[in-house]
Specification:
single chain; 148 residues; Immunoglobulin-like; four-stranded antiparallel β-sheet; 2 helices
Length: 148
């Protein structure tokens, strides 16, 4: 009798694939027009330094003109659209895994953020937004004087 090694992750992977297939079919993200119309969410990192918050978003295949950034009621919103290939018809593809369409990300800014000084830059498909902290929120050193 031959023994085979049991791999619990293989079974989990199988379950994950079935769930992806089930939800994909249910919410219409399989195939042509449905896939193109499905929304996608670009990954975002939020970091804090001593004097600012730095938000970095991956937006490959998007031009800077197709991205809008706004702030309202302490909520920073990044919106845009990744368009389907203009020069190639959809029926010429064998497989389409990239998501296309509109996206929107909202990030609530802390009360220490200064929305008036926000700056954004776009380089090699990476959007970087720098939100300075208010002066009163920045840490400051208090010097202790020796008496006597």
């Amino acid at each position: 009798m031959a023994m085979s090694r049991w791999d619990p992750f293989r079974e989990l992977s199988s379950i994950q694939s079935e769930l992806n297939r089930l939800f994909g079919r249910t919410y219409g993200v399989e195939g042509g027009d449905e896939l193109r119309a499905a929304t996608w969410v670009p990954p975002v990192d939020v970091a804090e330094t001593q004097d600012r918050f730095v938000i970095t978003a991956e937006l490959p295949g998007i031009r800077s003109d197709d991205v809008d950034i706004s702030v309202e009621n302490s909520v920073l919103r990044i919106q845009g659209e990744r368009r389907f290939y203009e020069e190639q018809r959809e029926d010429g593809f064998h497989r389409i895994e990239r998501r296309f369409g509109t996206f929107s990300r909202s990030i609530t800014l802390p009360s220490t953020a200064d929305p008036e000084g926000i700056q954004a830059s776009f380089d090699a498909g990476v959007l970087t937004i720098e939100v300075p902290k208010k002066e009163e929120a920045k840490p400051r050193k208090i010097r202790v004087k020796a008496t006597g």
